Amino acid sequence: MYDYKKSTHPMDNLPVPGLDIGENSETVINPYSGASCVLKPDAVAVYDVIKGAEMIGLHKVTRRCLDWFRKYYPREYMVLLD
Predict the structure, then answer these.
(1) How far is CA 41 from the centre of its chain?
(2) Region of residue 35 (phi > 0: left; psi between -120 and 50: alpha; otherwise: beta)
(3) How far is the C-alpha of 60 from the C-alpha of 3, rounded, in Å?
(4) pTM for the structure as a whole
């Protein structure tokens, strides 16, 4: 499993270095269920990495980002990614 630092703030523990974090929250829709969540900018960036990594088969990156998402945004994880 991904080795997180002790900080409980998600921005201190981004799973991919150098992520471009936007300034605005966004509504993200689960393409299978139609359920949606409003995500903070850091969560949007990690969600985008998850989807991109899935598409091109980067399994370790996908797993690391999913673990981060599950830790810091568990409700949103259940709606969008579980």
Answers:
(1) 10
(2) beta
(3) 13
(4) 0.85
Q: What is the mean pLDDT of each run of 10 residues along the chain (82 residues)?
A: 52 81 93 95 95 96 96 96 92
35, exposed or middle or buried, with CB in 10 Å at 0-12, 13-18, 19+?
Answer: exposed
**pLDDT tens-digit readout, 3-17:** 444 556 677 778 888
What the block records as the tokens of 39 is 């995500």
Could you please report the per-residue DSSP string of 46-79?
HHHHHHHHHHHT-HHHHHHHHHHHHHH-HHHHHH
Rounded Cα distance, 35 and 44, in Å: 16
